[in-house]
Amino acid sequence: QLRLVESGGGLVQPGGSLRLSCVVHGDIYTFLEIGWYRQTPGNQRELVATIIPARDTKYAESVKGRFAISRDNQRTMHLQMNSLKPEDTAKYYCFARMDRLGVSQDYWGQGTPVTVSS
């Protein structure tokens, strides 16, 4: 069973930085997409940043120039968040879409909370 485990969330002042990490546990097949989403109470989960291997990296307009997604290897991914704003407050989820023997499957972590407040 594949598990995604996030870490690095917390409380930070406006203008500050945080670095989120996601580690993938379990059997890995072909990654179709890996990235970060966020969600606030009463709202839908929204894309923050995503990597489509060997093709593209995408960011939400609201985080371009402030956030950076990266991968150390197949199992570890990060989201560097700089110049944080109160509107970045949300629960951040690691996401992976994998091709397991011809079947596309989505996986989500449990989420890590980020609060931007003075």
Commentary on this structure:
There is one protein chain. This protein is an all-beta fold.
Keywords:
mainly beta, 7-stranded mixed beta sheet
Topology:
Layout (H helix, E strand, L loop, with lengths): L2 E5 L2 E3 L5 E8 L4 E10 L6 E7 L3 E4 L7 E5 L4 E6 L8 E11 L2 E6 L3 E5 L2
Parallel strand pairs: 2-11
Antiparallel strand pairs: 1-3, 3-8, 4-5, 4-9, 5-6, 7-8, 9-10, 9-11
Which overall shape is indicated by the principal axes computed on the Cα atoms? globular
Question: What class, by secondary structure content?
Answer: mainly beta
The parts where pLDDT drops under 50 for at least 5 residues are none
Mean pLDDT across residues: 95
End-to-end separation: 40 Å
Largest sheet: 7 strands, mixed
In total, how many beta strands? 11
Order of helices and strands: EEEEEEEEEEE
Task: Work out the helix count.
Answer: 0
What is the rounded Rg? 14 Å
Percent strand equals over 45%
Tell me roughly what share of residues is in helical segments: under 10%
